[in-house]
Amino acid sequence: MIKGALAGLIGVAAMTAAQTAEMRITGRRPSLVPGQVASKLLGLEPEDDEALARISTRMHWAHGVTMGTVRAAIGRSGIDGPAAAAAHFALMWTGDAMLYKLLGIAPWPWSWSLEELAPDVLHKGLYAVTTSAAYDALN
Fold it and tell me: Of 13, 60, 98, 99, which is most buried, counting CB atoms within 10 Å of its CB?
């Protein structure tokens, strides 16, 4: 599981770098969804968007590291390579989308605009591929 957490850290670093570059190009603002999730789950009430942004950053990294352990569990089941990356992406992305809906943060993804859906899928896809490659290399 430690290798999974380390692989998740590598994956979230790659995803963060890609998000930062994409936001510079597109002008998209950072998502506050991670902070909204953490606030709902932990019963926090951030004073303003700046506080929510700080929570979002911490949750973003914590979620990335934690989801790396999911990749480790997939590896322990005997799946590796591209199949493991695909399974990891599917578990993470659908789990996140369900959590957003159940917490009342976002509607189901099929109602999201392309501007909302594309960055989410692409960045989480990059995360899953990078995390999976890092886990396979560490293992």
Answer: 60
